[in-house]
Amino acid sequence: MRVLIIGCGYVGLPLGATLVRAGHEVFGVRRSCAGADQLAAAGIQPFAADITKPADLARLPTPFDWVVNCVSSTKGGVEEYREVYLEGTRHLIEWLAACPPKKLVYTGSTSVYGQIDGAAVKETSPTEPASDTSKILVETEKLLLDAAAQKRLLAVVLRVAGIYGEERGHLFQQYLRDEARITGKGERIINMIHRDDLVGVILAALKNGRAGEVYNAVDDEPVTQLHFFRWLAETLGKWMPPFATDAEDAQRKRGLTNKKVLNRKLKMELGYQFKYPTFRQGYTDEIRRLEDAGLLNIQPEPR
Ligand SMILES: NC(=O)c1ccc[n+]([C@@H]2O[C@H](COP(=O)([O-])OP(=O)(O)OC[C@H]3O[C@@H](n4cnc5c(N)ncnc54)[C@H](OP(=O)(O)O)[C@@H]3O)[C@@H](O)[C@H]2O)c1
């Protein structure tokens, strides 16, 4: 297969490397040439192109059998979201109209689920998020699902939970830096997926995902913040983070969702088996890696 990965970063790079090892011809896109050596070392052919610029896309060496869109908005503001996700996807659909791939996989986000009551959500649950950035992601999905319904593009949407793994995992990093806070009573639910599993899920979606379908890409265990930190504290022999103050809580609460994202469809339809079914296995590996590299500096609990 000739495979194009747009957004060859934390997820795209190991995805590309895995595809190269499996014998595919892989092209990786980033906006600049920075990191081109890393891509080339993995056997990926690097291209500098910006998904927000149709002229850049037009220069890519079509046709491709598989396309993966895993660009990420680096700044995170509403305007950048609109440019990178919504308009970027629109450009992609228009560009691929002349040479449609056998499959396109887009890595969206579970943030499209706006539920705040801790409900279990599956792919058919309402996607009515309060935040403006998540609304843009709902619109982006719609572009792809409409294109698939009209048989213009064989697109599959993945709704990806919080990605963790080597050097990643927002709460874990905060915890190691002693900057973590437990919000509310710690009852907010966290949904996660290890980067290696996300790579596996994307491959499964490229091979077996049905065009026009949405799959939640999340592991088996949604976990409350409190349980997550308790496990980390016990595993690392480090104290629990403090509870956030009311003022901090009030500030953070805006736009925060609370839901348990289910992965049954992914497992049933794509037959995906997780390498790290829960954060416990994934973080056990990451903690071991940090220990082996001498990078864990756990301070004893103050008396
Ligand atoms: N991180 C999470 O917890 C999370 C949660 C849900 C969903 N996701 C989604 O998962 C996917 C993979 O995320 P990731 O962690 O691998 O992101 P990442 O490490 O930030 O990689 C994104 C890549 O996209 C490139 N890029 C950014 N803007 C671009 C543009 N306009 N045109 C072309 N390339 C561009 C970046 O390279 P340059 O900056 O050099 O261009 C980078 O290599 C993304 O779609 C993200 O939205 C992530």
How would you characterize this protein structure?
There is one protein chain. This protein has helices at residues 12-21, 36-41, 54-58, 78-96, 132-149, 170-176, 195-208, 225-236, 246-253, 264-270, 279-292; strands at 2-6, 25-30, 45-48, 66-69, 103-109, 119-121, 155-160, 162-164, 189-190, 192-194, 214-217, 223-224, 259-261. It is of the alpha/beta class. The protein has a domain at 2-169 and 194-217: 3-Layer(aba) Sandwich (Rossmann fold), CATH 3.40.50. Bound molecules: NADP nicotinamide-adenine-dinucleotide phosphate. Residues 6-12, 29-32, 34, 50-52, 70-72, 74, 84, 107, 109, 160, 162-163 line the site of NADP nicotinamide-adenine-dinucleotide phosphate. NADP nicotinamide-adenine-dinucleotide phosphate is lined by residues 6-12, 29-32, 34, 50-52, 70-72, 74, 84, 107, 109, 160, 162-163.
